[in-house]
Amino acid sequence: MTDPQQPQLPEGLALACVAAVDRGAFRILDGTREVPAELAGKFYFLADTPEELPCVGDRVAVQYHDGGAAAIIHSLLPRQSVLRRRRAGDKVEYQMIAANIDMAFIVQSCHFDFNIRRMDRYLVMAADGGVEPILLLTKIDLVTPEALAEMIAAIRAAGITARIIPLSNHTGAGLEEFRSLLTPGRSCCLLGSSGVGKTTLINRLLEREAFNTKEVSATGEGTHATSRRQLTLLENGAMVIDTPGMRELGLLASGEGLELGFDDIQSLGAGCRYSDCTHLREPGCAVRAAVAAGSLSQERYDSYLKLKKESDFYGMSYAEKRKKDKEFGRFINKALKQIKK
Questions:
Q1: What structural domains does the chain harbor?
Q2: What does pTM read for this prediction?
Q3: Which stretch of 77-81, 140-144, 177-181, 321-325 has the lowest confidence by average pLDDT?
Q4: CB-based contacts of 244: which residues, under 8 Å, 6+ apart?
């Protein structure tokens, strides 16, 4: 995502974009050149949480050394949009996927990976981070036109209004429509499970085998190819971020992100008797009335309730955790002051 107003940086620092993050190692993009980079010690130790550290797509202030062959990252510029999920494990924290993204392409294979519930999670993630979602249905050459039409109808019946692009890396169908969205200066991210064709799609855009892909199984299911998040600069200046397949898509979205991801239910909710209706048991609930009338599918309603419950739980846990961290910090500071006395 481009910003027409270039920031004023201190003397000796330059603006760069994070192109890759792999186990604490960074690569930054300086024009069309990738440079290895590391975090300044002060930057690292002042970061309270992992989400305060750079991720792919972040704009950073760097200082070059060794004749420009390496760099040190000194600070992170404000993010305009984010894609993030809950980190695996019991500890409630964000895992940053990418930043400053214009479009999130949610990639699902028509042949083995089609799952509307998972699609809902990606849509909520995009809405929560202020990113435009677009659905890519890949491997359409492996299903009949009738089966594809049924999948698209199921998406629309679920209340999902995002743009849909069916495509095939094998035949090239739909690739021009996809390519037309990748305009100079725009940044996009490919999200989806392993083997749905994300890396192959980038190779098609580059018209070369820039990234290795693995064999496709007899069922048409690909295997995991990408091991890190990687930003690729296309010849026209568009930026594409490939991500490893996500086995588990933990949700940690704000209420606003959830509502935007289910904008059909949000619109129905405006007709509820109570402004704070939870759409569970309250009388005069327009959402439950729509389910009873058949204008809102039971599956869509159940998906919304499941994700809302999860979002509320983890959102509460995260707020409580941050409160405890601050209280502990104040306790340590007070103890240190008493020791100095």
A1: 14-76 (2.40.50.140), 82-214+221-242 (3.40.50.300), 255-335 (1.10.40.50)
A2: 0.72
A3: 321-325
A4: 194, 224, 226, 227, 228, 229
